[in-house]
């Protein structure tokens, strides 16, 4: 299986442990409207994951510092759609392999994070309060910046 989409599972709290072993060929994961998911499996995500989309998974996004996405060398696309209730996080490690980053309704997105994304080609930001007045500096990170 290369794609797994989980949506509208209001009572789902965890993803299965050992996802690397259970789904070694997984390339794309979508988690949508699962408000009770708290974290990714302790063993980590499948190593070959290339696309990750998280939408309206409040508890999971608020704990994004624990995701360890920097351990996914093939991750190319990351999409996060949130409700704006996240805590501010300064140090959030993302893999430099990310080519497309889309975020909406996060309170913060550090320019340090963007500087570390050396493969970034497309950056899309919606409703990020922090980006007001910073659009010019963010444009320097991506030729395809949209705010």
UniProtKB/TrEMBL annotation:
Record organism: Solanum bulbocastanum (Wild potato)
Keywords: Plant defense
PANTHER family: DISEASE RESISTANCE PROTEIN RGA3, PLANT BROAD-SPECTRUM MILDEW RESISTANCE PROTEIN RPW8
Record lineage: Eukaryota, Viridiplantae, Streptophyta, Embryophyta, Tracheophyta
Superkingdom field: Eukaryota
Protein name: Uncharacterized protein
Gene Ontology BP terms: defense response
InterPro entries: LRR_dom_sf
């Amino acid at each position: 299986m290369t794609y797994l989409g989980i949506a509208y599972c209001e009572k789902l709290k965890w993803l299965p442990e050992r996802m690397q072993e259970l789904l070694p060929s997984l390339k794309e994961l979508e988690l949508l409207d699962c408000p009770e998911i708290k974290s990714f499996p302790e063993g980590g995500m499948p190593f070959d994951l290339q696309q990750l989309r998280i939408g309206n998974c409040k508890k999971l996004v608020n704990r994004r510092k624990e995701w360890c996405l920097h351990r996914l060398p093939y991750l190319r696309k990351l999409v996060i759609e949130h409700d704006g209730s996240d805590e501010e996080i300064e140090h959030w490690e993302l893999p430099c392999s990310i080519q497309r980053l889309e975020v909406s309704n996060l309170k913060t997105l550090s320019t340090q994070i963007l500087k570390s994304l050396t493969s970034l080609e497309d950056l899309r930001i919606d409703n990020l309060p922090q980006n007001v007045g910073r659009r010019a500096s963010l444009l320097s990170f991506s030729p395809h910046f949209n705010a």
